[in-house]
What we know:
This protein is of the alpha/beta class. It folds into three domains: 5-56, no CATH class; 66-129; 141-348, TIM Barrel. The chain has helices at 41-52, 126-134, 170-179, 194-199, 201-212, 247-260, 278-285, 319-331, 333-338, and strands at residues 5-6, 15-18, 21-25, 31-35, 55-56, 63-74, 77-86, 92-97, 104-108, 113-114, 155-160, 186-192, 216-222, 268-269, 290-291, 296-297, 309-313. The radius of gyration is 21 Å and the shape is globular.
Amino acid sequence: MFGSVRLTLPLPSDVAISRLSLSCFVGGRARTNLTMFNLTVAFQRLLVSILVAVSVSDAWSPENLRVDLGIVDSGNTRLIRLRSFQEPNGEAMMVAVDPVRLETSVRVQAGWKVSKDSLSKLDSTAWGRLRREETSLEWKHGGVSRLSGTDRGIALTIDLCPSHKPFDRRVIAGLRRAFGPNSSAIPVAFAVTGSWMRNHEKDLVWLRTLADSGIIAPTWINHTDNHRYKKGVANAKNFLLLPGTDVVAEILGAETEMLEHGIVPSVYFRFPGLVENKALFDQVAATGVLPVGTDAWLAKDQKPGPGSIVLIHGNGNEPKGVKDFLQLLQSKKSGIRQGTWRLEDLRRG
């Protein structure tokens, strides 16, 4: 998803951070591994500054990003086009989702044919089923809150609302301790705001590096651009329900920020504060995203069970939720070892 990196300083051409080691070609010969712990403090600081300045080779510069729902076909592949935009060179691009696997991708539009079929043709797919369930008269508060089926693990979602505090890295450390250094990439969903990305470049680079290293398998949930909130206003009139809110602009703003950071937005959306009403819910769903809620907001003492979509905040503003999740991991050590308790990819819901 994130690809290789292009460094802006004249360092060796093949430099990449992987876990706690720095791997590089020296003089074009053998690969040398230097542990981060053996690097000088000055060089570690320089390295951090380099990473913040990294330009991701598959990042985009979206112009005129817009909602553009439709079915597109190429050969035997059928996708849902969610967004269209142009690159500065005029090339037409799209953000599309596989309606069966719920995986998103950014593609050049050339070579894809727009189908005359309506989206109802996809009602039997995972995207169609969730969309139909969520927009029914008995819509789910905040979006789908549990994984379907039985004998399921849990899906971890970490909200990154605007905050002056750094990312709470205890979460990742706890996951790595619990599942071990040799585990496959750990599925984690980040509900990220545009504001958080703009103000936490170092933390975002760090998370992207973990993904590139195969340590985590992230799903990036749209949590709006600004996460609007006004202190003292009742929830029924707050967040996206505040007067003057441009809901579509909030959605597209966060997606623009992701694309500019080389992140492919997922098909999922999370309402700020999990606050919405039916009219707002339908307005958001009309953009093609699938709202996702929770049945286990840990900081509110909601207990997770099999199939739960767990919510914690990794932005430093809700340490109780992080503490409770780390305690949950500790209590599930035996189940993790035996393979009877696991984290699941939200897209397999």
